[in-house]
Structures are given as C-alpha cells and as structure tokens.
Amino acid sequence: MALQEELESQGGWLFRYRSFLPLAVLGVGILVQFFTIRKSGFMFLAVLPY
User: Fold this and answer.
1) Buried residues in 11-44 as b, exposed as e (16+ CB within 10 A)
2) How far is CA 43 from the centre of its chain?
3) How far is CA 36 from CA 9, 18, 20, 39, 46, in A?
4) Residue 45, H or E segment
5) Which has the closest alpha carbon to 37: 50, 48, 26?
6) Contact 47, 37 (CB under 8 A)
7) What's the CA gap between 42 and 12, in Å, rounded?
8) DSSP character for 41?
9) For residue range 11-35, what is the model confidence (pLDDT) as tens digits?
10) Taking the chain, what is the end-to-end CA distance rounded to the nearest angstrom?
11) Does residue 7 register a pLDDT over 80?
12) What's 49's DSSP letter?
C-alpha cells in the first residue's frame, strides 16, 4: 500500500508541473550546449562551419 501511495504522490507532482518540466530540461540543455561551445574556443565555427 505504501508503494501505491508513493506512486500517486509522484504522479501528482509530475502532473502538476508537467508544463514546467520541458522548460527546465530545455534550459539545462541550452546551458550545457553554451558551455561546451565556449570551452572548445570556437563560438560559431563549431555550429556554422562555412
């Protein structure tokens, strides 16, 4: 019974914040991409080779 209650509480949290989770993942992805390009020293050369 405790497992079922735990799954219900996690599901409720995910359902409540379902519109903000993709934004958080997108924000983290953009930060990782920015720091990866910045660390390599090529700002736009890595993205646009021409």
Assistant:
1) eeeeeeeeeeeeeeeeeeeeeeeeeeeeeeeeee
2) 22
3) 36, 28, 24, 5, 10
4) none
5) 48
6) yes
7) 44
8) T
9) 998 888 888 989 999 999 998 888 7
10) 60
11) yes
12) -
Alpha helices, DSSP H only, in 1-50? 2-16, 21-40
Query: CA-to-CA distance for 50 and 35, rounded, in angstroms?
Result: 22
Question: For residue 33, what are its two tokens?
Answer: 């991409």
Number of residues in the chain: 50
CA 21 to chain centroid, in Å, comes to: 7
Q: Residue 21: what residue type?
A: L
Q: What is the pLDDT of residues 35-47, one digit of tens each?
A: 776 655 555 555 5
Q: Which residue, chain included where needed, has tokens 């991409």?
A: 33
